[in-house]
Amino acid sequence: MREWRVAMATYQEFIQQNEDRDGVRFSWNLWPSSRLEATRLVVPVSCLFTPLKERPDLPPVQYEPVLCSRANCKAVLNPLCQVDYRAKIWACNFCFQRNPFPPSYAGISDVNQPAELMPQFSTIEYIVQRGPPNPLIFLYVVDTCLEEEDLQALKESLQMSLSLLPPNALVGLITFGRMVQVHELSCEGIAKSYVFRGTKELSSKQIQEMLGLTNPSATGPQGRPAAPQDPAVTCRFLQPVHKVDMNLTDLLGELQRDPWPVPQGKRPLRSTGIALSIAVGLLEGTFPNTGARVMMFMGGPPTQGPGMVVGDELKTPIRSWHDITKDNARHLKKATKYYDALANRAASNGHSIDIYACALDQTGLLEMKCLSNLTGGHIAMGDSFNTSLFKQTFQRVFSKDHNGEFRMAFGGTLEVSTSRELKVSGAIGPCVSLNAKGPCISENEVGVGGTTQWKICSLSPSTTLALYFEVVNQHNAPIPQGGRGAVQFVTQYQHSNTQRRIRVTTVARNWADAQSQIQHIESSFDQEASAVIMARLGVFRAESEEGPDVLRWLDRQLIRLFMFHLRRSPFLQVFNNSPDECSYYRHHFVCQNLTQSLIMIQPILYSYSFHGPPEPVLLDSGSILPDRILLMDTFFQLVIYHGETIAQWRKAGYQEQPEYENFKHLLVAPVDDAQEILQTRFPMPRYIDTEHGGSQARFLLSKVNPSQTHNNLYSWGQETGAPILTDDVSLQVFMDHLKKLAVSSAA
Amino acid sequence: MEAEDLYIKPGNQERGWNDPPQFSYGLQTAAQGAPKRTPLNKRVPPPQLTGSLSPVPGTSPTSTVPMTPPTNPLAPPPCSMNMPPRPCQVAAPPVGGMMMMATSPPPCHVVEHTESASDQSESEPDVVDVVTLLNWALTACRHTVKKQVCDDVAKRLKLFEDMWRSGKLSLPVRRRMNGLVQELKSWNWDAADEVHRALMVDHVNEVSQWMVGVKRLIAETRNLNSDLLHRQEVDRSLDTSSTANSN
């Protein structure tokens, strides 16, 4: 037992070091060497991978990566390859092909190794020259059916963002309400715009024709639109921000509310669907395959044209979960299908779509979420554009790293290679399939499968994919020579400074015979990574299948604590959260990295008191005490809860008296700590300052394990903790139940 | 960046329930990449399946803090004499002078350095200095930059000046614009640009109409031939010395 504990401690370090260096966390760090044994482990061999994990200590190299010459391999030279320095030959560790080094490597030797062969460069980044640098593009799509105050705040945020954009970026503006207007951005003369009806669906070609993007004088050979680099046809609608910033600032300043009057009892007519289709079509026709962000700002649901989510009669509310389960959501299927098609088009062009939705009621995120989920775009959800939550979340889209460079990256593709004993089942995250066939593809699809290449149109340093593998070695086949399986992740992308880069991560883990080494395999288990990996699978299935089935499936998984919280989380339990809210939470859950995702499943709770420094406490009602302040982080909310006595002291004003300065410090401590989180988190969370008996206390109470409910309070015989009024099952009961299930299934 | 530029305002509780506080641009950029002072990332292991609830911190009977029920007169908190070590001891926050929120003040209460009469005389920037410097840069640009652009910039600089003179610009904006032109004068283009960005983020409603002109001015001036700028420098210093002499 003690050995196992020592092994666990070492594995913790191993796991952490690997994550720090390579941005990879595997569910198992010792791999069962046979397919049969692997399937018995319930949690598949899988990993969370953060392609652009921030590595301030990793200087990129300025040459092309060396590739394996075998046509269906093309793996990149890495530290796991055998090298013959004398003959200047290297052996691919994936397909065993022997490859000669390129002429430029003539000088390499044992003591003069290229960086990519050194073990500490298991992750390495290359800067490559691939034609002229393409500028980044930001296309604003703005809803004008907003209240004056909201519109003013949004306009100011957009004007501000012109100062935050990369200086050579191209910028464009489309506004919409009942009609859709595409604004010409010129440096001189009167501003012109092209108006489209909000109800008529147009093909991409028609949109481009109507915008004059295919006019004869601008056509290249065979009547196709001229190349984007051709200055004569540089799009009038997408102009460099450093040239049009003054005019665009004025244009934004003059934007008016949609002039179409909204009768009593009606919603404004919003043609969101057409607006987006024009945005996608415009980019498709002018800058396919270059980094671009469509940033859509909406203050309410689409109410007209294709993609409408609800009609304009206020007395017909927007669909609720109840409506959906009763199959009473008229527009749901059609709208979802419409946006799904748009999302796929944008993704195949390498363009991402952000949604900034600010309204008190739902806006249709349920139908539109694919626009961001498939393209790696952001979703921000707020109550109004005139809130700090929106303004700061939006500002942080343009945040810079320690080098002063933007954190956003574009046009990403990820390719995965594996040793022969392993195949790729699929990926779950903000990506689409590139349908790349190859020898490493498993027939069992998990998530986005049937491929070893995916496209991630927009990435940040926290964007994380879950990748699922299948061990295909037959039972009783010998452990592969060398004893290790390997996976290589090759991410190509456009850096915000417009350079094209390739990041290569190559990792390996030992094979182990499950018959004789099951304890070792178990000790290599990464509970945290596995929880998130299985949770993503759960969410993926919940989005495509019936809810209750997913919960039953989840119950059969044996990662107890996290499954308990996951089960009750807004990801799977839909009461108290609207369809839009669920879509919002799920979107962030399948994009974020491990640390942030864990917070979402199992919030962090710290207790502040006079008895010592702040300490983590169990997410349990027993942690709620009169003389404690609790700080809870659920990722989407930061809650500071003052216990009953603390609240009374605060009300009595003791913090103002000099002799009770320590009480003042106590009150300030959680606020300071919350601030550190608030200063950098994306998206900006809600901030709740509440106390015992406060109406907002429900945010804390609904997250804690109700170990003391009104059913069992008096059976414990002690009066510690605050009773939670709920019939929700407690962790103890749940774990007892799970244990019974586990025992019976193994029997 | 002055201490006054690192501040936190409450969120807009009228428009967004539980709207988080708003951080100034300076505070947000300072936070990027800075190590967390007190990383809140620990969890308590769950109770064992077999047993009783594992002890939750604070439930021990040795708790010395009185827990009086609400109806009795409230005993006060422990005095400062018994103060435990302050939780956050490692690496102090970046700059002093930050105002923190302990409770939510009423909405739109801006926590900033308040103006007093003595402050005014000490640190009130001179509009003439600021405008003169901006116009110096603009004049330099007129040699090479399109007339229409320069006129547009001039229009916005005029608007800026008018707003200043009619008291429509707050002290932080005036002060920071003074800082901006000092950077321009010293050819610190990046620093000037950063000030403009900070002003756009922190005071967009005051500056949005004209700041884009300043932004363009910085961008065009930095592209100018350095000889041109030298010549302009000489002209400008001759002007100011003659003005000074005539006073």
Explain the overall architecture.
The complex is a heterodimer of chains A (747) and B (247). Chain A is an alpha+beta fold and 747 residues long. Chain A contains 21 helices and 27 strands. In chain A, α4 packs across α6 (272-286), α6 runs parallel beside α8 (332-348) and α9 (365-373) runs parallel beside α15 (579-589). The two termini of chain A are 24 Å apart. Chain B has 247 residues and is mainly alpha-helical.
Query: What is the CA-atom radius of gyration of chain A, in angstroms?
Result: 28 Å
Structural class category of chain A: alpha+beta
* Biggest pleated sheet of chain B: 2 strands, antiparallel
Say how many strands of chain B there are.
Answer: 2
The helix tally of chain B amounts to 8
What is the secondary structure topology, with strand pairs?
The complex is a heterodimer of chains A (747) and B (247).
Chain A: H1 2-22, E1 24-26, E2 30-32, H2 35-40, E3 46-49, E4 82-84, E5 89-91, E6 98-100, E7 123-128, E8 137-143, H3 148-164, E9 170-176, E10 179-183, E11 193-197, H4 204-210, E12 239-240, H5 241-253, H6 272-286, E13 292-298, H7 321-325, H8 332-348, E14 351-358, H9 365-373, E15 379-382, H10 388-396, E16 409-418, E17 422-428, E18 432-433, E19 453-459, E20 465-471, E21 484-494, E22 500-512, H11 514-523, H12 527-544, H13 547-555, H14 560-568, H15 579-589, H16 594-601, E23 604-609, E24 612-616, E25 629-633, E26 637-642, H17 644-652, H18 661-678, E27 686-691, H19 698-701, H20 713-716, H21 731-746
Parallel strand pairs in A: 2-22, 8-9, 8-13, 13-14, 14-15, 26-27
Antiparallel strand pairs in A: 1-3, 3-20, 4-5, 5-6, 7-22, 9-10, 9-12, 10-11, 16-19, 16-21, 17-20, 18-19, 21-22, 23-24, 23-25, 25-26
Helix pairs in contact in A: 3-5, 4-6, 6-8, 8-9, 9-15, 12-13, 12-16
Chain B: E1 8-9, E2 22-23, H1 25-31, H2 117-123, H3 127-142, H4 147-165, H5 171-185, H6 189-202, H7 204-223, H8 226-246
Antiparallel strand pairs in B: 1-2
Helix pairs in contact in B: 3-4, 3-5, 3-7, 3-8, 4-7, 5-6, 6-7
